[in-house]
Amino acid sequence: MNLKSVEITKLKIQEQDKAAAFCKSIYEELDWGLRFSDGGDKLTEYFGKPGEIFLVAKIDHRIIGCGGIKYLTQNNGLLKRFYIDKEFRGKGIAALLLDKLIKFAQLQKYKYLVLDTRFDNFRAQRFYVKHNFKKFKSKPYEGWSESFNTKIFYYYRLKL
Predict the structure, then answer these.
(1) What is the pLDDT at residue 28?
(2) Residue 33: pLDDT above 70?
């Protein structure tokens, strides 16, 4: 696989069902259950406000990764739904996708990009630390339901 064959674009409404199915497949793989807590089936709407974006990574029109940024506060963008298909992990696609999301966050003038990972998601934790995210103690934020549940999530942020 050549990274040049990976196309990363903003999610189009006609791709929404495929993107939601992709996200659900990740939930199923990781045994998170199939119920999204927020915006699962209507990704273009959920990530549709000013300061927000949802990107998909594709090879030959097949979605192999995704990730989005939600507006959290004037200073904080919230990284959500950042997933790569199991078959394509460890090949540099996540880094490409993250780079595009970081550039978007910088254009929005966010000072930080914040996220959560489950305590047992060691692969994600290593990835974020490798990409200069630092663990921090988050306060609860309206609009970030996971920030209220410190018993199962770690919180990371990247200074932009």
Answers:
(1) 86
(2) no
pTM, two decimals, is 0.93
Burial of 64 (0-12, 13-18, 19+ CB in 10 A): buried
End-to-end CA distance of the chain: 30
Structure tokens at 133: 């995210």
pLDDT tens column, 70-115? 999 999 999 999 999 999 999 999 999 999 999 999 999 999 999 9
Average pLDDT across the chain, whole number: 92
**In the 8-state DSSP scheme, what is residue 37?**
S
* Token pair of 109 as six digits: 């003038």
**Cα 136 versus chain centre, distance:** 18
Burial of 83 (0-12, 13-18, 19+ CB in 10 A): buried
H or E element, residue 123: helix 122-130
